[in-house]
Specification:
Elements lengths: L4 E5 L2 E5 L4 H17 L6 E3 L6 E4 L2 E3 L3 E5 L5 E7 L5 H14 L4 E6 L4 E8 L2 E9 L3 E3 L7 E3 H4 L3
Parallel strand pairs: 7-8
Antiparallel strand pairs: 1-2, 3-6, 4-5, 6-7, 8-9, 9-10, 11-12
């Protein structure tokens, strides 16, 4: 069973509620698929769900999925599964933090609408590249073995 967890966002300690069952199912599915796609990959490392990632002393996040570079140990891809109970932290506060730190990839996974927003870091901040839903497929060019049908990810 999930537990509440703590993040430090711009110096403010935030106690996040335990994710619900659907949130956890989506998280487990996503982790399994990303992990399988990393077989033989020496460039990136997948952290366990909601691992503490210290971006700065006053910014400690726990993404639902975190992929770091093996060489620098820097966060390269974060996936946040939006909770309807406290979505502001993920969709506004953490997204702004990821933009400031120039995160290369962000996936905002929203079970409320069964869609995934794909953001790429750029010199001008995070740029929305796609919103995927239904029969579309989530993929990442820098993870060529990763493909996930959106309908399968959100299957009830």
């Amino acid at each position: 069973m999930s537990e509440p967890y703590q993040e430090i966002l711009d110096g403010e300690t935030c106690l996040r509620p335990a994710p619900g069952a659907r949130h956890e199912t989506i998280c487990q599915r996503l982790h399994a698929r990303v992990n399988a796609s990393l077989a033989g990959n020496t460039v990136a490392q997948l952290l366990p769900p909601r691992s503490l990632v210290e971006l700065a002393r006053d910014r400690q996040v726990r993404p639902d999925l975190a992929l770091i570079t093996t060489a620098s140990k820097k966060l390269w891809l974060a996936a946040e599964i939006v909770s309807s109970e406290d979505h502001r932290w993920d969709t506004v506060v953490k997204k702004a933090i990821y933009e400031e730190m120039n995160l290369p990839r962000l996936w905002m996974i929203d079970p409320r609408y069964d869609n995934v927003e794909i953001y790429h870091g750029s010199q001008h901040g995070l740029a929305l590249k796609q919103i995927l839903a239904g029969r579309e497929v989530l993929g990442e060019p820098l993870l060529p073995a990763f493909q996930y049908a959106i309908a399968e990810l959100f299957q009830k």
